[in-house]
């Protein structure tokens, strides 16, 4: 914890631009605080990745106060102005009180309020509902510091009501728990299970972003095991997996052996959705399509799901390179290593196999080994000149490429043409 001074007021060390913005607002006569995630991170002794400020000043006042700074009208209607203070973008938001929530996601109205406590009371969890200013110390009406210490995620107010207001908070709770390793308090946990169906009201893009964030957490496995019903609610593709507990556990166990790569995390989660590689790839594709994930993510994860059980060794690396390409094959080696570690196989052996495979792959790439039609020393025109027609040309080129990657023939024009012609006579 960053603190100094002998009095009981906790002192956090804020970055100078944050300090300056708070000062300017206070000098103009308006209360102002650092708020939310940055205060939580400070209390936890972590470095915040950004700073939000809240204030009693309404946006028009803020624009006056910061007329010498560059500002961006991020969400003036909702009270948010971004101020670029000494190159640091700061989101400054007027204290708000939310009106009624009717759609299970957004308040009908937003009201400005002069009281910071009102603003804190609309925030999701106690650990996120703290504000800080150097003169006032930490404003913590809901016991956020205590919950930080006890490592607890707890809704501000009544959990069920808060999740009914905004169902996204269900996934936020799981994400914070997976990231911080905090226990979800009992009533909050029960409300999550009971209200999981309300996630249908949340946009699939938001759901995808929360799951992606959760998968990055060091405690993702524990949360996904405990809240598999919530995952199933957002991805029906998991329905069969619930019956296959061992495989599910193993897929999750591999997460912690992966580097921080979203595509690999999703591939780990979705690799065993079905019995055959092809069916798994298809199920993974449908799951990500359902969440409106990018085409790139859909492609990569389904390729990885398809090949996750393939036997790979230096001897068939060039062929694997043909099937997957460089980027996905590198990821597949990492996924297979994580799977093997999760399965409890001998670690030295696993690391050794990984190193040998990586080195072989690097060597093939360094020597510009042929693994694609573009690199093959014959092309469609060459085969047309030999008398091949239509679909035959493509088939023949693929057969030649396969012979090259399997080391049965060199990637040389004469040899390839000869082989093609022999095939034709058959
Ligand atoms: P992170 O480190 O992931 O950015 P954060 O706490 O800063 O964590 P944000 O999504 O950036 O999370 O939100 C900033 C703050 O706004 C939160 O700390 C919380 O106080 C409040 N907040 C965000 N989303 C909600 C929500 N859906 N309901 C209530 N309060 C919310
Ligand atoms: Mg944040």
Structural class: alpha+beta
Q: What small ligands are held by the chains?
A: adenosine-5'-triphosphate, magnesium ion
What is the overall shape?
A: elongated
Give the distance, in angstroms, between the N- and C-terminal Cα atoms. 78 Å
Number of helices in the DSSP assignment? 20
Strand element count: 11
Question: Taking Cα atoms only, what radius of gyration do you get, to the nearest Å?
Answer: 28 Å
- Runs in which pLDDT lies below 50 for 5 or more consecutive residues are 1-7
Percentage of helical residues?
A: 40-55%
Summarize the biggest pleated sheet.
7 strands, mixed
Write out the strand line-up for the largest beta sheet, numbering strands in chain order: 3-4-5-2-1-8-9
Labels describing this entry:
426 residues; alpha+beta; two-stranded antiparallel ribbon; 11 strands; elongated; binds adenosine-5'-triphosphate; binds magnesium ion
Please describe what this structure looks like.
With 426 residues, the chain is of the alpha+beta class. 51% of the residues lie in helices and 10% in strands. The strands form 3 sheets. A 7-stranded mixed beta sheet has the order 3-4-5-2-1-8-9. A two-stranded antiparallel sheet has the order 6-7. The chain has a two-stranded parallel sheet with strand order 10-11. β4 and β5 (88-94) form a beta hairpin. The chain is elongated. The N and C termini lie far apart (78 Å). Bound molecules: adenosine-5'-triphosphate and magnesium ion. Adenosine-5'-triphosphate binds at residues 36-37, 52, 123-124, 128-129, 166, 168-169, 172.
């Amino acid at each position: 914890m960053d603190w100094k001074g002998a009095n009981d007021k906790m002192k956090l060390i804020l970055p100078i631009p944050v300090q300056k913005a708070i000062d300017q607002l206070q000098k103009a006569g308006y209360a102002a605080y650092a708020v939310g995630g940055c205060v939580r991170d400070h209390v936890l002794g972590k470095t915040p990745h950004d700073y939000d400020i809240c204030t009693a000043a309404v946006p028009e006042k803020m624009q006056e106060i910061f007329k010498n700074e560059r500002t961006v009208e991020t969400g003036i209607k909702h009270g948010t102005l971004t101020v670029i203070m000494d190159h640091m973008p700061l989101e400054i938001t007027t204290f708000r009180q939310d009106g009624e929530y009717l759609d299970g996601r957004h308040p009908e109205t937003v009201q400005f309020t002069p009281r910071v406590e009102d603003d804190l009371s609309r925030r999701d969890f106690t650990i996120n509902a703290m504000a800080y200013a150097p003169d006032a110390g930490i404003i913590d009406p809901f016991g956020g510091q205590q919950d930080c210490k006890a490592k607890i995620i707890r809704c501000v107010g009544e959990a069920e009501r808060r999740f009914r207001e905004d169902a996204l908070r269900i996934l936020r709770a799981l994400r914070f728990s997976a990231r911080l390793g905090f226990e979800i308090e009992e009533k909050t946990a029960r409300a999550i299970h009971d209200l999981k169906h309300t996630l249908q009201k949340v946009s699939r893009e938001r759901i995808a972003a929360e799951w992606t964030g959760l998968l990055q957490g060091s405690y993702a496995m524990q949360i996904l095991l405990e809240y598999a019903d919530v995952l199933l609610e957002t991805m029906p593709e998991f329905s069969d997996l619930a019956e296959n507990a061992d495989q599910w556990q193993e897929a999750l166990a591999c997460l912690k052996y992966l580097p921080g790569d979203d595509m690999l995390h999703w591939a780990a989660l979705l690799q065993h959705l079905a019995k055959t590689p092809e069916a798994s790839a298809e199920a993974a594709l449908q799951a990500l399509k359902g969440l409106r994930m990018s085409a790139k993510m859909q492609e990569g994860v389904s390729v990885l799901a398809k090949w996750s059980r393939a036997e790979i060794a230096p001897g068939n690396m060039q062929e694997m390179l043909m099937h997957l390409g460089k980027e996905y094959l590198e990821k597949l080696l990492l996924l297979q290593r994580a799977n093997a570690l999760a399965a409890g196989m001998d670690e030295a052996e696993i690391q050794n196999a990984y190193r040998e495979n990586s080195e072989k792959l690097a060597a093939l790439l360094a020597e510009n080994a042929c693994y694609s039609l573009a690199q093959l020393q014959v092309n469609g025109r060459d085969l047309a000149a030999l008398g091949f027609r239509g679909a035959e040309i493509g088939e023949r080129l693929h057969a030649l490429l396969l012979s090259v990657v399997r080391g049965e023939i060199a990637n040389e024009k004469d040899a390839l043409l000869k082989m093609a012609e022999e095939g034709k006579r058959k």
